[in-house]
Backbone:
């Protein structure tokens, strides 16, 4: 065989095997990712089920943890907060519906949506979600808590497309700090953070759980049912013979009420520490690593160590950080830096369910 033909044959053969290797690597990577995702979903489901057996929880599932735009297989901000009776959606960045499909979130269960502010990475997915709910023949009322301008934006989009929703959509304007949702078991408060435009954080709280009455024991002690409400509150009972029946003889301790604070987009802002004091779990943005404090400040964002400092000063039990800048391909350094200040810090990983 001539030398020129031989060299050409070698190059052709090398090219063929390189392409084959690349294809094999791609297939292998897809299989690994699929296995990882399946394992993640199974572990999350088991974790949630196990915790629910122990008692009430607030479960936070991360749908998106990136800032500004989708990049590096990360998505704009969105979270699902679940309790025993509610499924709340917090922020609704682009791609939120797709993430709900991936992580098996039932959209029909969502009755309350909280939008922190009107930068696109926090609400551009909302109009798609609202119209999809209509296409799925939703009839239940839907409540949206957001800055005032959002209602005008959504109505303009619906009018422009000639869309009519089959359900009632109610907007609740975020104007003052305080309670924005409350029922017999749960409370949601909003609080202001420090961003370039009006921006709100949200605190999700169980109401204080009452002590559980041992009915048989209470009857043996001849405690009238009219006193049961006070037993729930921890009071002792004094019978007609002036004998004191200790509360812990006829009741069992309540499960401590859980709480979760979502701190939205914000520069370092110590004022919020008092508003989220002692919560079980905090989500705080950490757009940049700590060497970019000046850049973070100029853009009204926070760094890893600043987020950790807020968790520390507020007396939180756990911290998850997110809203990562697209300039970072990987996130390992984010956790390392946060843990230097607040040991119980974690990355807000997409698809992972964090329990308060």
Residues:
């Amino acid at each position: 065989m001539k030398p020129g033909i031989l060299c050409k044959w070698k190059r052709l053969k090398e090219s063929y095997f390189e392409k084959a290797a690349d294809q094999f690597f791609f297939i292998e990577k897809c299989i690994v990712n699929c296995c990882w995702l399946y394992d993640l979903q199974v572990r999350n489901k088991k974790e949630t089920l196990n915790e629910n057996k122990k008692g009430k929880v607030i479960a936070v599932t991360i749908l998106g943890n990136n800032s500004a735009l989708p990049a590096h297989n990360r998505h704009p901000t969105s979270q699902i907060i679940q309790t025993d009776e509610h499924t709340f959606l917090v922020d609704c960045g682009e791609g939120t519906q797709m993430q709900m499909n991936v992580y098996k979130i039932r959209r029909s269960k969502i009755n309350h949506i909280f939008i922190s502010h009107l930068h696109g990475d926090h609400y551009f997915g909302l109009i798609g979600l609202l119209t999809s709910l209509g296409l799925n023949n939703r009839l239940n009322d839907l409540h949206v808590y957001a800055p005032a301008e959002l209602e005008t934006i959504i109505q303009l989009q619906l009018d422009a497309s000639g869309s009519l929703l089959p359900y009632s959509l109610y907007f609740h304007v975020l104007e003052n700090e305080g309670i924005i949702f409350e029922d017999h078991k749960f409370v949601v408060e909003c609080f202001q953070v420090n961003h370039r435009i009006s921006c709100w954080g949200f605190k999700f709280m169980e109401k204080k759980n009452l002590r559980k009455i041992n009915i048989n024991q209470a009857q043996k002690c001849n405690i009238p049912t009219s006193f049961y409400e006070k037993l729930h509150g921890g009071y002792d009972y004094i019978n007609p013979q002036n004998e004191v029946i200790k509360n812990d003889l006829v009741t069992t301790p309540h499960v401590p009420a859980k709480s979760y604070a979502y701190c939205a987009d914000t520069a370092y802002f110590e004022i919020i520490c008092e508003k989220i004091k002692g919560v079980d779990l905090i989500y705080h943005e950490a757009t940049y690593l700590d060497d970019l404090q000046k850049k973070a400040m100029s853009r009204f964002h926070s760094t890893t160590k600043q987020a950790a400092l807020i968790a520390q000063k507020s007396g939180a039990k756990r911290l998850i950080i997110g809203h990562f800048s697209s300039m970072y391909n990987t996130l390992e350094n984010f956790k390392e830096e946060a843990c230097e200040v607040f040991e119980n810090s974690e990355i807000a990983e997409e698809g992972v369910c964090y329990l308060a």
